[in-house]
Amino acid sequence: MRNLWTIGMAAILAIPLALTAPAASAASAAVPPDISLANVKAHLTQLQSIATANGGNRAHGRPGYLASANYVKGLLDAAGFTTTLQSFTYSGATGYNVIADWPGGDPNDILMVGAHLDSVTAGPGINDNGSGSAAILETALEVSRQALAPTKHLRFAWWGAEELGLRGSQYYVTNLPAAERAKVKGYLNFDMVGSPNAGYFVYDGDNSDGVGSGPGPAGSAQLEATLQAYFTSIGVATRGTDFDGRSDYGPFISVGIPAGGTFTGAEGIKSSAQATLWGGTAGQAFDSCYHRACDTTANINDTALNRNADAIAYAVWTTATATPPVTVWQDTFETATGWTANPGGTDTATLGQWERGDPEATTSSGAKQLGTTVSGSNDLVTGRLAGAAAGDHDIDGGTTTIQSPAVTLPSGGTLRLNFSWYLAHGSNASSADYLRVKVVGSTTTQVFQQLGAATNRNGAWAVADVDISSYAGQSVRILIEAADASGASLVEAGVDDVKITR
Ligand code: PHI
Ligand code: ZN
């Protein structure tokens, strides 16, 4: 029955394939599939029918929720997953999480992929979050069709009672024994991925936006980069969305599990800049039916749903089939390892030169120099002392540089440079001020830049993760530059936990 209508819809709704090949993140990774939009929409039709037959919703404690859970579980069982219906009690009603394990892969290296399956009581919850539920369901079914044999163990989850405060995902994480929790190396979350007036948001795991919450646990930046790589490959611009814990990744990041995910927007209003970037209507909500009875199958943007379903499959395939990275070199700056300040002898800064040490905190209209490091008590910092005023040991008068000892990179494979950073400045700064990171080998490449601006920017640790594979086989040095290059202004920078992996 299901196969008949699935094939029928696929024939009618056949969509053009995006032929641009996403950048492979590991040579050994299997080719990610194109997820069938028709199949994803067929699941949404089923969830809509379930709501319609059960009082118009699929909310926690209502019959439409259990029917939704049984629909998902039935398909996964038939596809060869090992499934469990995990029950919990919230607010006097029984809730359920559907957990589905794909047999095989490294049991000590688990990638989880989740979406909340419950709706609010006001409506059927097709965009929120039938969309994420259906997209990960179809991805799981494709894993089965392709008999994927990933390096990592894959576990999918459909959460109950998200709308009442992340109850199902919190229950799962809380009740996972510590030894089992330690095996979960990453979590991908998809909550609202077909919004009618869509935006293309990726969770800001590296805090590159510097807004709201800080970076996610180490590894979150890589998950963000992987999802971004897919959108880049299809020519769709993305923006970050703060890692504020407003969906089921919250309980995971709060126990230190790296997470990532995408989002097409809820009750927020699309700005005119966003409408220029993505199309759609400025001044209107991304989803004007958010938490309303009109969140039906009519409340879905097919293009957004299709792109996100393909992004999910891309992230699952590349993450789960990649060989785990090996650390080639790292420096946490707790001890001296041979960094050289002003290696070229051309620095012009008169104060606030880079040094390794235990930084003192300064504030001026918010945090400027951070007194807290990412690990241990030392980092690389532009003038570690605070002084009497915030402007006492900041960068003044030009550029300051510091260079790592020589690092011999192995030949071949994907090499990534990962580090924590911040740039802080007052509103008296300008775009002539900056923090830059370069790789110096047979050629020199700038791999990172954060420019200043004539606005206040507080110090906040963020993570950068860049591909330096083109330097494989070379002896390289990492060069860090910062500048207060336009008149006197308050500029501070820090770097910690520099790491190269293969
Ligand atoms: N979880 C919220 C909506 C939401 C989804 C908010 C994703 C943020 C993000 I990222 C809800 O279900 O109402
Ligand atoms: Zn919701």
Automatic annotation (TrEMBL):
Name of protein: Aminopeptidase S
Keyword Protease: yes
Source species taxonomy: Bacteria, Bacillati, Actinomycetota, Actinomycetes, Streptosporangiales
Cellular component, GO, one term: membrane
GO function terms (MF aspect): aminopeptidase activity; metal ion binding; metalloexopeptidase activity
CDD domains given in the database record: M28_SGAP_like
Top-level division of the source organism's lineage: Bacteria
InterPro entries the record matches: ConA-like_dom_sf, M28_fam, M28_SGAP-like, MAM_dom, Peptidase_M28
Keywords carried by this UniProt record: Aminopeptidase, Hydrolase, Metal-binding, Protease, Signal, Zinc
Annotated ranges, domain MAM: 332-502
One example of a Gene Ontology biological process annotation: proteolysis
Organism expressing this protein natively: Streptosporangium canum
Signal peptide region: 1-26
Similarity-based family: Belongs to the peptidase M28 family. M28A subfamily.
